[in-house]
Amino acid sequence: MRVAIADDSALFREGLAMLLASSGAEVVAQAATADELVSGLDRSRPDAVIMDIRMPPTYTDEGLVAAERIRARHRGVAVLVLSTYAETPYALRLLGGGGGGLGYLLKDRVDDVAALQDALRRVVEGRLVLDEEIVAGLLAHRRHADELARLTPRERSVLGHMAEGRSNQGIGSRLHLAPKTVENHIAGVFAKLGMPASGDDNRRVLAVLAWLRATPPEPRPVGGRGAAAATAAGPDHRGDASPFG
Amino acid sequence: MSACAARHRTWCLAIGGTAAAVAAAACQWPAFGPSPVPAAVNVSVTVAFVLTAALLNGEESLGSVTGALVLGGLLWALSFTSAWDGGPSALIATFSYAHFWVCVGWGVLRYPTGRLQNNTERVLLGAAVLFVPVANMAQLGIARPEWLGYTHPDGLWWYGSPVDHGMYDILTIGLDTITVALAAMFLVVIRHRLRRYSELDRRIFRPVAFALLFAFLIAAAVNTVSYIPTSPHIGAEFTLVSLTLLLIPVAFAVAVLRRTFVRARIAQQLASLPSPPTVGAVRDALRIALHDDSAEILLWLPDDGHHADGDGIARQPPHPPDADLIMEVRTAAGAPLALITAAPAMRRNQDLVVAAVQACVLALENARLHATVAAQLDSVRASRARLVEASLHERRRLERDLHDGAQQRLLALATRLGLARTKATDPDTISAIEAAREDLRHALADLRSLARGIHPAVLSQGGLRPALEVVTAALPVEVELDVCAQRFDAVLEAGAYYTICEALANTVKHAGATRATVSVRQMGDAVRIDVIDDGKGGATAAEGGGLAGLVDRVRALGGALVIASPSGGGTRLTANIPC
Where is the HTH luxR-type domain positioned along the sequence (chain A) (predicted)? Predict the structure, then answer.
């Protein structure tokens, strides 16, 4: 697999390149800026690019802008964005543009070659990949606490894996479930949450994300169990997302 | 002498009045038999002139008018010595009657400045002094006493040699015409003066001028009928003149009263000043009180080292100093406070300006104090705004340093650990790497949390809406966001962000709320932020508390925070921040 990297931190770039090389990928280009990466794509012709979001010159959203440009001009190139922060608005901006071959991961994932390889493979296959931290944050949101409380723990983890962009097969192998069981769980989730069922994995990701971000259709009486579940899910992720601590 | 007169005013009035009355009565004693009422009116004219002079004595603005009034009163009494009908009575009466008018005209022209205004006035007065008495005395010399109306010419002292009666009549018509012309010129001069005067002077001078003009017109009219009183029978025409003359002291009294009103107006204007007074308001009060639209207050600002006018604009005091009336005002402690300038015409009403200025001192001191405090407040606000901005820059710099430095180094370390993990085969090594990796994940999470707390990158990059989406997603309270996507100034966005975060932190910690709503909207030239929860309410901005900190934070941005938190009724924080 041919991979191009853009990150303004030379140290990180080198480390990532070494890691990718060791896992059998061919690092065909390294760039310190998004522009440098995009302009070299015709020459390097990678299967996937790995980019930071904050890069020179403005250190704001260069990575996202570059991803849009790559999607527009180099349709065959998959884009995996690695971000220092797990920011839901950015993830949605990246993935929500439609199509596949896009991924948004926390930079921390580089300590796990297998996970990185897996994500790269999936984006190159044209899937959407979303970091588990973001999915966990969405699932922990109090907004859907009542509806999510109606799911079994197993259904909740299936929902999470769907949101991360995994296929039925991927979910099955992760949870050590037979494909048929996974299908049943997915059908249960769709039925209980009233989501439109979709066979296409990428559409499924967007549907799940849209559902998670939407305000519940009608207010329901607060159930004791639902509140407990939400509170239990909350603290795990607050450390990262809250500015209060 | 005037000081002494002022101290024993009552005595002066009593003695002066009595003496005048006795003298006037003696002058026309024989007239009391045949015409008691006209004689009494004449006495009252003399007494009124003398008493008015005594009353006005000490009013420096009246100049030498008081002398003219006393002299005029006595001359009027002497004009009626003709009642004695013998000896020098005709000479004295003619001399006095003629000089009476000159004296009164001279006195009025010298009012209110104490001197004549220009050469026209000097020529006019000189002509009157030369012509009226000389003409009248000459008229005696070319006439027989009978022609003038004396019925018992035998005992009268007389002089000259009479001319032909026809000739006398022609000369008399000529003299009368010149007298009327002089009176008319007098009218023109007075009119010219009234035009030139400031509004204040006009108000003061007008009653006197009108009274005198009226008296002149009556006298000129009477002059065409009979020249001077010639017998103990005082004609109705002279009674009319006497009654008219009584208007003159009344007019002077009105003039003095009007000046007093001006002083009262100053006090009234200053009493109606706004609180705290502004220099502009004091100046406007001064202008109204003095009827002088050019009056200006130049407030001395010791901190700035220059003067500023009523509109707060820096101004140099006018040079040369004689261009305007300039008065220096000092504080009670004697420090320079202000310069007050007024139209040059106000110079003759300097006493009024002084009174106004003295009344202004306190208001001006107050105004300057307020202006100083306001300026200091402005500078404090400006420095606070600079501090807020500096603190934002510092936070962003810190976050960037963390991001570019420690975070990237740790992430690079993560890649190396990942690499080491793929290379490792020994179970002990693998478990050691796994442990290190776990520690590193915690370190990265901690660092991320720290960096985000210092300044969330998403705020700079995406604005308030995404930043608030991120922060509210993780709260254990359902937060509805109604935040406009518009971008604002970075300082405002950061301030609004931390304000909302702190408000939500309070909601989570203390309110026991289940829902909260955050709305951020631009309303005109301000951003309005509402953070509403359905908690137990009862929140107050206690000293040192979280809400007090919020109030400070919003104030530092030049905005205002309102907290409505009825017990049991939820809490609503509303912040308006100018943008």
Answer: 144-214
Our CA-based measurement puts residue B526 at a distance from the nearest CA of chain A, in whole angstroms, of 25
Task: Report pLDDT for B413.
Answer: 95
Which tens digit of pLDDT belongs to each residue from B406-435?
A: 999 999 999 999 999 999 999 999 999 999
Q: Specify whether B485 is located in the same domain as B527.
A: yes
Q: What's the ipTM?
A: 0.85
Domain limits at B509? 463-578
Q: What is the pLDDT of residue A244?
A: 45
CA distances from A90 to A131, A135, B203, B525 (A): 12, 13, 80, 30
Q: Return the beta strands (E) in B443-534 as ranges.
A: 478-483, 515-523, 526-533
> To probe the interface with A, which of B417, B447, B470, B518 has the most A CB atoms within 10 Å?
B470
pLDDT score at B487: 93
Q: Which of B418, B440, B449 sits opposite A245 (nearest CB)?
A: B449
Q: Does A234 touch chain B (CB under 8 A)?
A: yes
Structure tokens at B296: 């200006």
As a whole-number percent, the residues of chain B with pLDDT over 90 amount to 24
Sign of CA dihedral A134, B503, B511, B543: positive
| B232 and B301 assigned to the same domain | no
What the block records as the tokens of B413 is 């370390």
Higher local confidence (pLDDT), B151 or B566:
B566
pLDDT digits (tens, 9 = 90+) for B52-71: 888 777 665 555 678 888 88
CA–CA distance, A114 with B79 (Å, rounded to integer): 135
C-alpha to C-alpha distance for A20 and B396, rounded to whole angstroms: 32
Half-sphere exposure of B579 (CA within 13 A, CB side): 23
**Residues B282, B138: one domain?**
no
Residues B165 and B83 in one domain: yes
Region B243-267: mean pLDDT is 84
Residues B468 and B536 in one domain: yes
Q: Which residues of A touch B466 (CB under 8 A)?
A: 87, 89-90
User: What residues of chain B lie within 8 A of the CB of A110, using their CB?
Assistant: 411, 414-415, 418
Residues 6+ apart with CB under 8 A from A69: A38
In chain B, residues with a C-beta closer than 8 Å to the C-beta of A61 are 461-462
